[in-house]
Design a protein that fits this description.
This protein has about 300 residues and is an alpha/beta fold. It folds into 2 domains: about 210 residues, 3-Layer(aba) Sandwich (Rossmann fold); about 60 residues, Alpha-Beta Plaits (2-Layer Sandwich). The protein has a 6-stranded mixed sheet, with helices on both faces. The two termini are about 45 Å apart. The model has no long low-confidence stretch (mean pLDDT about 90).
Length: about 300
Amino acid sequence: MTEPHRIEIKGLSKRFGPVLAVNDLSFVAEPGRVTGFLGPNGSGKTTTLSMLLGLAKPDAGTATIGGKRYQDIDDPALLIGSSISAEFHPAHTGRAHLDIQRRAIGAPVSRIDEMLALTGISDAAGRKVGGYSLGMRQRLALAAALLGDPKVIVLDEPINGLDPEGIRWIRMFLRHLASEGKTVLLSSHLLSEVAQTVDDVVVIRKGSLAYAGPLSGIQGEQTQPTALIDAADRQALAAALEAAGAHVAGMRGTEALVVTGLEAGQAGQVAFAAGVALTHLSTPRPELEASFLELTGQGSDA
């Protein structure tokens, strides 16, 4: 039986003329979890979300929620809250925009004040949206997405342009939504923006899947074992490690040595055999953003 609020992308492809925007893409976003949909600008994220929300037709594959396409769901705007753009009619007030939205989807009028309060923009409800900051427009977009009390929330770049306070707020807010059992899928072109928010990540590169799984999986992927190691006799330690085939370099800002080519345990065994007493031994995890850039082909060798 299909989980009623699971997002499932299966073999999804979309071409615009000569450009293959999405290429045989497959992933899932589960209820009760925040899934980050990540990739550089132009990697196919918005196209994928548009197909999920019935705004674009796939050339191949499916994009479903609870096993159904968006257009086959009864009252989809009440089940799925979405925001693809934080652009609004500049002459409308925040309250007017929400009233138009709630009428369109059949949500009760009481939801307007509830969502204004929930997103922290009640004081700005009577102001024209044209005078809103980008952060306030992002909050208004989120308020609109939540008008129908949806079980599935799909947001395109919701953190873009927010100040640090706004980023902290939306992180906590999205975690709260997931804690209520809702499925939360949000896109971003920066992993660092959402690293403290998401449970799972889907990384795409040029429309194709580069990684799908828990956030920890990105950090755990290393091409070569690396160790940080130190000893009172660093010269003897370095000589022993190099003799064992490792590459040894100094670590910026510290006296510890960076060892490539040997795992931490192996480096420790080499030091023990050489009679060198260690003062430090650890396996560093790669920088999260560096790993993300490598996955998406944005590293220095891309």
